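Quick start: what a row looks like.
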Amino acid sequence: MGGSQSTLSAEEIQEHEANTYFKASEILEAHLMFSKLNRDKDEKLSLTEIQKIDQLRHNPFSERMCRVFSSDGSGNLTFEEFLEMLSTFSVRAPTDVKVQSLFLIYDFDQDGFLGKDDISEIISRIAGSDDHNADSSVFLTPSEIEHVAEQVMQELDIDRSNKISFYEFSKVMEKIPDLSLRARIAII
């Protein structure tokens, strides 16, 4: 539904309004963006097409975000998946929805927990020397990343299980002021 059609029906718009945090005008704007990016006019935007969006191109987690929101894990998104991703990180999405999605994005090995390897990957993407680092002025060596990951694990792993559960993660996220505004993609 909606996929690569040039327009959305009134019923489709109403359904998307009921299932997202967007108004009709925002849904139409997202659909227009999807259509413009979808050069081959198939049912899905490729990861490459999605990463042409400035706000995602420079996000060190954009590939992982797309993989989490794609039903098949490929990172290629249907219009509905694209809209869900944008809606989840919109200004009106509740903080708990954003926290749940952030946890899934940060769980690189998809085991339902954040382990030391996941934390190291997060830090590496933010402050490492690889292609994901959006701010090249911040750089940590692999040993510094390892040290920071160990510190994060000590601080967040409340039950000392050597992994961070969603509960432990959400307790930390509750302490971040304005998380709902910080965890957003301002595309529409």
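That is the whole record. Confidence is low (pLDDT under 50) at residues 1-5. The chain is about 55% helix and 0% strand.
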